[in-house]
TrEMBL record:
SUPFAM superfamilies: Cytochrome P450 (SSF48264)
InterPro entries per record: Cyt_P450, Cyt_P450_CS, Cyt_P450_E_grp-IV, Cyt_P450_sf
Protein name per its UniProtKB record: Cytochrome P450
Entry cofactors: heme
GO molecular-function term, one example from the UniProt record: iron ion binding
Lineage, uppermost ranks: Eukaryota, Fungi, Fungi incertae sedis, Mucoromycota, Glomeromycotina
Iron-sulfur as UniProt keyword: no
PANTHER family on file: CYTOCHROME P450 (PTHR46206), P450, PUTATIVE (EUROFUNG)-RELATED (PTHR46206:SF5)
Originating species: Rhizophagus irregularis
Length: 493
């Protein structure tokens, strides 16, 4: 009798859940793609058949349509509708959508994750100081390559190369963020490089509890934080321990030297010049370290991802590697091996290659937003109600024939040569870095460092895939991850 009662309660619960979560569409909304499984809706296809499923939906229902996943209606936008989101940023909120899967303000509780502050800081102190930062990047990329890859007179094979490239990219960025003294400690560099990888599993946890209530997912994934577990805590402690003596040293130098004090060229010096910096107050150092970690999270893993994808794209195309080697030799000879921003700008073939690699990132759905205005009507007449979640069909835009030609699906490394279309340029079709006023402010440094990294690798090594083929990316639902296939490094003779 007890089993029957429990079963009946379960059935009643499912019925109530279905009634509560049943999709309700208003007038002039994009069409809802039909589904056959109550409650689950399109969730299975979204997770395990994303590419084919979304492509078929667009073919049947047009550039705007809605799907039912995790107990909620989500509207998918492509082409013209997608670009309207970037033009009307005040109507759409990306930050609240990001918090659903990664509550960064809980992981970095001391700073509160002040996005406008981080954007301004990145624009002014990272991309805005490109000349200084590229000089630092060159110095430490060379050190990292020598240490981690080294002599390859006999070919060396590396697997899971993203981990390798991530540390190589983290080394110069750590020096730019905290300065040479703190970044001389390998544990700090590794900690900053590990940040996104340690937090990453929280992002890919499917929000199954959304079926009951959205807040439940956030409660569950943040529950360990209430008991003291935080993947950021270990990293924060390492950074704090390495920065305390740096702060004390610099404060002492300021006091002793006065007007003769020479400021350091790193982000930490910028933080120490802020009016609210006071290491004598409780948690003040924690506050600035969490600000530092927020920028670290947004910079190292995204740059290393671009670099490792480009490296795999290069390794599978020996004819492209040879052509880029010729360009690299000419530039290296002109500057005697000392690359500055003007030399990076001369790497026009490499720039086109990097841009094409980014275009083929192959993420299917990206940049989720919430509709925060009462409603929004697109130019095609479709209306999005307040509170609706939208996702951008990014791969559809990045492979659009009307923008990239009939061969848009192909990887053409020099597609953008002589087109006044550098990899940093944001336009209606190239949405890798977002768009509008919220376009990624760090893209100028990220592209420059990626090109610099590839330039040094191309000059020093022949790189190929162990399989001898072009490696495919790994799909995780609508997202992709770099291949884990082997890459072979061999010294150039």
């Amino acid at each position: 009798m007890i089993e029957v009662s429990l079963f009946q309660l379960f059935v009643i619960f499912i019925i109530i859940l279905y009634i509560i979560n049943r999709p309700r569409l208003g007038k002039n909304e994009p069409p809802l793609v039909p589904y056959t499984i109550p409650i689950l809706g399109h969730t299975y296809d979204y997770l395990f058949n994303t590419k084919t499923f979304i492509k078929k939906c667009k073919e049947q229902y047009g550039e705007c349509f809605s799907i039912y996943i995790f107990g909620d209606v989500v509207t998918v936008l492509s082409r013209d509708s997608l670009t309207e989101v970037f033009r009307n940023n005040n109507d759409f909120d990306m930050e609240s959508a990001a918090k659903e899967t990664l509550p960064l303000e809980r992981l970095l509780p001391y700073s509160g994750n002040n996005v406008p502050f981080h954007v301004k800081t990145t624009r002014e102190q990272v991309s805005g100081k490109l000349d200084i930062n590229i000089d630092i990047a060159q110095k430490y990329l060379l050190k990292g390559i020598e240490k981690l890859i080294g002599d390859c007179n006999e070919p060396k094979v590396f697997y899971k190369t993203w981990n390798l490239v991530n540390f190589l990219i983290a080394l110069p960025i750590a020096n730019i963020l905290v300065g040479e003294e703190a970044a001389s400690h390998e544990d700090l560099v590794k900690a900053l490089g590990d940040l996104a990888f340690d937090v990453g599993p929280l992002i890919i946890i499917p929000p199954i509890l959304f079926f009951i209530h959205k807040k439940l997912h956030e409660i569950v994934i943040t529950l360990p934080l209430k008991f003291g577990w935080n993947p950021v805590s270990r990293i924060r402690n390492i950074v704090m321990n390495r920065l305390r003596p740096v702060v004390e040293k610099r404060l002492k130098e300021r006091k002793e030297l006065g007007n003769y004090y020479k400021p350091y060229n790193d982000l930490w010096e910028y933080y120490m010049n802020l009016p609210n910096f006071d290491n004598t107050k409780p948690n003040n150092l924690h506050f600035h370290v969490d600000n530092l970690l927020a920028i670290t999270f947004a910079s190292i893993s995204t740059t290393s991802r671009a670099a490792v994808d480009a490296l795999y794209d290069l390794a599978g195309r020996p004819e492209v590697l040879n052509e880029l080697y010729e360009e690299a030799l000419i530039i290296d000879k002109e500057c005697n091996g000392s690359i500055t921003v003007p030399e990076i700008q001369k790497m026009v073939k490499l720039d086109s290659f990097v841009k094409e690699s980014l275009r083929h990132g192959d993420t299917i759905l990206s940049l989720p937003h919430y509709m925060i205005s009462k409603s929004y009507t697109f130019s095609n007449g479709f209306r999005i109600p307040e509170g609706r979640k939208i996702m951008l069909y990014s791969i559809d835009m990045l492979k659009a024939k009307e923008y990239f030609g009939d061969d848009a699906e192909e990887f053409k490394p020099f597609r953008f040569l002589n087109r006044n279309s550098p990899a940093t340029k944001v336009d209606r079709s190239y949405i890798v870095f977002g768009g509008g006023k919220h376009a990624c402010p760090g893209r100028f440094f990220a592209i420059s460092e990626t090109k610099l990294f590839l330039h040094k690798i191309i000059l020093k090594y022949k790189v190929s895939t162990e399989s001898g083929k072009i490696e495919d990316k790994v799909f995780v639902g609508p997202f992709t991850s770099p291949s884990e296939g082997g890459l072979v490094f061999e010294n150039r003779k």
